[in-house]
């Protein structure tokens, strides 16, 4: 299925009128109760006039044709609209919680849940109007929905390098499938001063698909290699002292350098966008979820 990235005028919600035409997102779950759950979620949001974008496994399947069985949906919303959307879903009868105050909430019905996301765990990737302006439109069952643009999917996934989860392979698949549609200038701008993270993923793409490296434009390689040369020539005196950017890509694999070796956490203001409370709450919750997952693994 070739991806078509047709932009329509934005609607007041994440669901477009039925007369709009769009390609179909591959069906990912055969669990009937889950399909009923997410369709009711979409209908509740449509009735409330809420704007949202669908990301995660559904968007990845639409763009790359790589389908995964899933029992959740990722909805992306702006920080300003997050509260209203959670309220609308609460009024529709769902259990809601602001799981992480700086980036994510959950909507639950029994074992099924929806993640409502307005930023990223490291605090770098806020959802803004550009996400909606550049969204693509696809059909999900009877609904026509807006998907997170490939550029923003790459941007947010690029910082997920946990021991138990690594999203770099998704980025490789997105580049392989969407290279003609990617706005490379906009993608580079998204990464800003963290362009080295993007560069690392592009090099892995070229490693995985040697004959496909042309899918990354030559000017992109040249631009980033020039930046790397300049970075390597930066005098040590102008570099932030005792800085560790590791927590931007993994919340738990760089705790020792931060807690015991005296390095500064790049997530923490004024270097990053999070305060100490955000980091402590995030770390505590993630530790708890990791423990639950490990116990499930042992029991299985």
Automatic annotation (TrEMBL):
Ranges annotated as biased composition (Basic residues): 1-10
Region Disordered, annotated ranges: 1-21
Matching InterPro entries: Aminoglyc_AdlTrfase (IPR019646), NT_sf (IPR043519)
Pfam families (UniProt xref): Aminoglyc_resit (PF10706)
Name listed for the protein in its UniProt record: Nucleotidyltransferase family protein
């Amino acid at each position: 299925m070739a991806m078509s990235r047709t932009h329509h005028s934005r609607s007041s919600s994440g669901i477009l009128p039925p007369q709009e035409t769009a390609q179909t997102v591959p069906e990912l779950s055969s669990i009937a109760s889950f399909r009923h759950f997410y369709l009711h979620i979409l209908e509740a949001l449509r009735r409330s006039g809420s704007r949202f974008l669908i990301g995660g496994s559904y968007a990845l399947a639409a763009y790359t044709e790589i389908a995964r069985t899933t029992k959740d949906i990722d909805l992306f919303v702006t920080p300003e609209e997050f509260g209203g959307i959670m309220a609308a879903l609460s009024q529709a009868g769902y259990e809601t919680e602001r799981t992480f105050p700086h980036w994510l909430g959950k909507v639950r019905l029994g074992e099924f849940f929806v993640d409502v996301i307005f930023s990223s765990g490291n605090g770098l990737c806020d959802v803004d109007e550009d996400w909606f302006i550049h969204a693509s439109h696809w059909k999900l069952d009877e609904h026509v929905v807006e998907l997170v643009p490939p550029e923003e999917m790459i941007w947010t996934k690029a910082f997920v390098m946990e021991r138990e989860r690594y999203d770099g392979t998704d980025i490789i698949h997105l580049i392989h499938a969407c290279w003609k549609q990617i706005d490379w200038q906009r993608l580079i701008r998204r990464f800003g001063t963290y362009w080295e993270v993007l560069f690392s993923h592009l090099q892995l793409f070229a490693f995985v698909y040697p004959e496909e490296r042309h899918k990354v434009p030559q000017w992109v390689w040249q631009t980033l290699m020039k930046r790397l040369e300049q970075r390597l020539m930066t005098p040590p005196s102008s570099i932030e002292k005792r800085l560790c950017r590791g927590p931007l890509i993994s919340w738990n694999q760089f705790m020792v350098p931060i807690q015991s070796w005296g390095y500064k956490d790049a997530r923490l203001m004024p270097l990053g966008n999070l305060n100490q409370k955000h980091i402590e709450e995030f770390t505590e919750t993630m530790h708890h979820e990791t423990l639950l997952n490990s116990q499930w693994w042992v029991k299985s």
